Amino acid sequence: MIVIRCPHCQVERHEDELFYGGEALPPRPSDPLQLSDPEWTGRLFFRSNPEGAVIEDRCCAAGCGHWFRVRRCTASHAILDVAPPPAMPVPLPEFSS
Amino acid sequence: MRHSFLNLLRQGLSGHRGWPQAWRNPEPRRSYEAVIVGGGGHGLATAYYLAGEHGLTDVAVLERGWIGGGNTGRNTTNVRSDYMYPESAALYDLSLRVYEGLGRELDFNIMLSQRGWLFLIHDLHQMETARHKANWMQCNGIDGVIVDSAEARRMLPALNPAADARYPVIGAFPQRRGGTIRHDAVAWGYARAADRLGVDIIQNCAVEGLVMNGGCVTAVQISRGTIGCGRMGVAAAAWTARVTAMAGFPLPMTSHILQAMVTEPVRRCLDHVVISPATGAYVNQTRKGELVIGGIMDLYQSFSQRGTYPSIEKVVAAVVEMFPAFSSLKLMRHWAGVVDITPDRSPIIGPSPVPNLHLNCGCGTGGFKAIPAGGLLLAHAVATGRQHALAEAFGLERFRLNALVDEAAASGIAH
Ligand SMILES: Cc1cc2nc3c(=O)[nH]c(=O)nc-3n(C[C@H](O)[C@H](O)[C@H](O)COP(=O)(O)OP(=O)(O)OC[C@H]3O[C@@H](n4cnc5c(N)ncnc54)[C@H](O)[C@@H]3O)c2cc1C
Ligand SMILES: [Zn+2]
User: How large is the ipTM?
Assistant: First the structure.
C-alpha cells in the first residue's frame, strides 16, 4: 500500500485517501494557440510512463485538499520524494505519429 | 501427433508418456525475414498467420520469459464482442468468430465455453446506456439484448435477493456468444501450430536494443548477440513502448496493474460470466469449480506485476455485494499483470514511424479476446507493409488526427 505524508498538512495518508491526478505535466500554456498540433498531441495523449521514477500529481483529498507532487518508482512503488508543484518541474511530453 | 480421439485414448492408457514435444526449442539463427517481439497470444498468433496466411515462414518469435507468461497467462479469460463503435465491433467480432473455430483449426482444445456474458444494470442511467449500446450493436449486426430483472435472477440464482440491496438489479445485458476460453491453451495452440509451419519460438530471449540503418530496423540485440531482421512486429504489451523507444519514438500508453483472484473450488453455482461495472467487479466459475474474480484497474502507473490490498478489498467487497453467499469462500491465489492503456482504450495496430516496424499493443485490460484479430492484422501489416482495412481506425496517427475510437466510454471496466 502506498502511504505518503502530505507536504502541506504533514499527515500520513494511504493511497485511497490521495486522489491521483496522473503523471505531472508542465503548466497549461497561457495562450493555447501558441502550441502547435504536435505539442498539443504530446500534451493530451503522451506520457513518459517510465519503468522507474515518475513524477505524479496527488491531492490530499481526505485531508487538507491541496495538490502536491510525488516522485515514485513504478517498479517498486517506493516513494522517492514529495513536494508542492513548483518545487518539482516537469518537461512537456514527447510525441510521435 | 494429432490430438485425435484415438491418440488421446492411447496416451491416456499409457500414462501420457508418448506425446512428442509440442514445439522445438531452437537456437536463434543469424537472421530472419521477420522478427516478432513478444511471445504472448498476440505475438504467437501473428507468427502463425504470417506463416499460414502469407507463406512467410522465415520468422522468429522472441520472448523475454516463457510464452504466455505475460498477460496472456494472467487474464480472466473472458471473451465477447459487445463493443459499441462499429470499428471495434468489427475487430472484436472477427476475433470471436475465429475463436469459435480455432480449436479445430489448431488441433488444440482451447476450451471455448460460450456460456453467456452478462452485464448487470443497477439504475436507470445504466439502463439508458445499455439501451444505447444495444441499439449500436444491432446496427453493427452483433447479438445482444436487454433482459429484465426477473430473467436476470433466473439466470443467476445466487444474486443478492435483498429488496434493499445497495445495488438492486433492474436488468441485465447478456451477450450469449460471450464466455471464457482457457488462456494458456491459446498461447500453446498458436505456438504449436506456428512451430509446425517452421516458425522459431525462442524463449528466455529479451530484445535489449535495436540496430537501425537508414531509418529502418535491421537487427535486434539480445544478450547472446544480434539477430538480423528484414522487418519486425512488436506485440510486447506494456513493454512495447520500451522497444519503440529503442527505435527512437514514444507511444501514447501508460502501464497499470490489473489484478485477479481465485477462490477455493465449490460445486457448480454460477452458469455465466457476470460483470457489474457499478460495483467494480466481475466473476465466473471455472470447470474445476473455482470462482475467478477480476475488477478495477489501479489508476496510477505501475510496472510492478504485484497486487495491492486496497484493490483486492474493493473487488472482494463488490463480489460479496453481488453474491452474498460467496463471502464464506476462501481466496486461494491472487496475481497482477501490467496492462497497456491507451488514451481511448483501443489498441494501436499497424505501421509506425519506422517503415519496417509494425505494432500491435494497447489492448489494455481487454486484449485476450482480441488475440486472433490482433494476430491477423499485425501479420497483414508485417507481410504486406500496408494497413489492413479492419485496422485503419486503430493506427498510431489517430492521436495526432484526434480521431479516437473512444471505447473508454463504451466499456468502462477491465475485463
Ligand atoms: C488480471 C487481468 C485480467 C484480464 N482479463 C481479461 C479478460 O477477461 N478478457 C480479455 O480479453 N482480456 C483480459 N485481460 C487483458 C489481456 O490479458 C491482455 O490484453 C492480452 O493478454 C495481451 O496479450 P499480448 O500478447 O499483447 O501481451 P502479453 O501476453 O503480455 O505478451 C507480451 C509478451 O512480451 C514479452 N516481452 C516484453 N518485453 C520484451 C522484450 N524486450 N523482448 C522480448 N519479449 C518481451 C513479455 O514477456 C510477454 O510475454 C486481462 C489482463 C489482466 C492483467
Ligand atoms: Zn494534506
Answer: 0.94
